[in-house]
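Q: Structure tokens for this one, please.
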Amino acid sequence: MAMALGKLVIAAAAVGSLSACNVIYTSPSVEPTLSLQDSTGQLAVEVVPLTFESTAAANLTPYVPARLPLGFHPDAVRKAVARQAVPPAPISLPQPPTQPNARPGFIADRMPPPLAPQPYRIGVADVLLLAVNSSNATLDQLPGLITAQSSRQGFVVQDDGAIAVPGADRITVAGLTMEEAEAVIFQALVTAGIDPTFSLEIAEFNSQRVSIGGQVGQPALVPISLKPLYLHEAVDSAGGMTITDPRVAQIQIFRDGQMYQISANRFQSDPGVRQILMQDGDAVYVNADYEEERARAFFEEQVNISQLQRSAQQLTLQTAQINAQLADTELDRLRLEREIFKDRVELGAVRRDYAYLAGEVVRPARFPLPFESRAMLADVLFNERAININFGDYGEIYVLRRSTDPDEPNRLIAYHLDATNASNLVLASSMEMHGGDVVFVAEQPVTAWNRAISQLFPTLFNSLTSVAGNIAN
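A: Here is the predicted structure, written as tokens:
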């Protein structure tokens, strides 16, 4: 028994001696030194305990994350379209004709046929304000949403009587009342699988107008809106009549190729006359010094102005369509650019930064650092390839970073994180990773001992068990 016990003591001592001399097994570790010889030359290693102060100092080291191509920027389409957008063509309108000075004789009133109020019907060039739920808008809907800073967006009724709602194709609304248009838009949104919660307003009334000229404060084109427009409101919108003698002044109404006239006296005194309902295309001419040819010239001039304005609206619509096509083309180009970039990243053709995992980790690997952002030490430690909980020493975690100072090219800083106190892990969420950093996790002492024994005596534990059995016997 004494002999067996002596063999056990000698074997244990031999193993400890050889392991301490690194003859059996060499454990990688981080040692502070002023001259560590390796294949690159002399490295001066400085071990710095990781604290809030040292973490802040480490984060001051210059580092610029790799940038993404333009196609990944959220406002790329808006900027590209703004550079290529076609500006609307300017339209100059003629001045109305001068007024004659001849005093008229008596002219009998000729009233226009009475009209009954009708609900407003949407027309070409009206601007509809549609407030929808765009929180689920997809990338393909970006061209239509690019100019909308919120969920409220204006849509111009185009020459075919339709508006183009992103994701719902074209919706015909011209000739419809507001109630009818809401029903049609609701059905189109439901059909397209878009949240049908919306509200509809008319932001600009451009399709129906009445022209006012002659002896008024300011000749104008007065739009017809949801509220019926009456003669006195149309005249007031142009600044009211500027006549000096209502006995000789006339109000001419040109409608559907016919001219109707009302004396200024009657207009001022008869409420029924003041309530004459206006319709689209009416031209009202206030004449203190009547001359029929001049009045007709004014009417024709207003028709020409209206036609020019409609032409301007058509040009505006065409410009908007061209710009929308440019946006679609630019979006397709940027989408292709993104796909090519992703393929190049997968093939390793794009330069990017990495941090590296070494030591007692699940698997040594490189950790890709994000584009245009910063990764933290916690991101590296808490991924599936990080610390091997069976062998890694939480008290010996290091971030190895080579100095960027050109005067100290061989200086290496080892930031030491002691995570045996779990509260120190919060430092890992503040420590920024730079390209080329190496995260090293040392092994536990018992792991080094076990590996040394397993290399020297593969059957050591069986032998010890046998010896122990002999001692017991």
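A few notes: The chain has twelve helices and 17 strands. Confidence is low (pLDDT under 50) at residues 1-15, 98-104, 137-150.
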